[in-house]
Specification:
Blueprint lengths: L9 H6 L6 H12 L7 H8 L3 H13 L3 E3 L5 E3 L4 H16 L1 H25 L13
Antiparallel strand pairs: 1-2
Helix pairs in contact: 2-4, 2-5, 3-4, 5-6
Length: 137
Amino acid sequence: MPSDSSRIPAGVRELLATIDSVEKLEIIGLLGRDVDVSWSSPALTDALGLPAGQIAPAVDELVADHLLVRIGDGQVRYGPDRPETEERIAALVRLYEEDKALVLRAMTEASLERIRVAARTFADSFLLRRRKPDDPA
């Protein structure tokens, strides 16, 4: 049975590797509503009702991922570096507004898959060589 997240377009699912938390999604959604407005961390904290300790790291990561632009006075504004990224963000924000549970499940699935890949990579690092089925022990 396909997961609910299959209802999410592939490009939007790919974006969940970057926008991987509710904090990031809320920030990008707020800033995307008026792309010409710059926001300070305290203003984001007040507008979103989230602790500053959650806002600052999320903003830093969104800036590093080229989704927000840092302005000289410590403020940030919406600023994806590619038009297709803007389209994907808009689609993700729309989906989140329509069906929060769907997007949250998709975020969880994406996070679990990253954990699985990391665990496999870690486990594989301990293998000296893989035995072939016809190899004697």
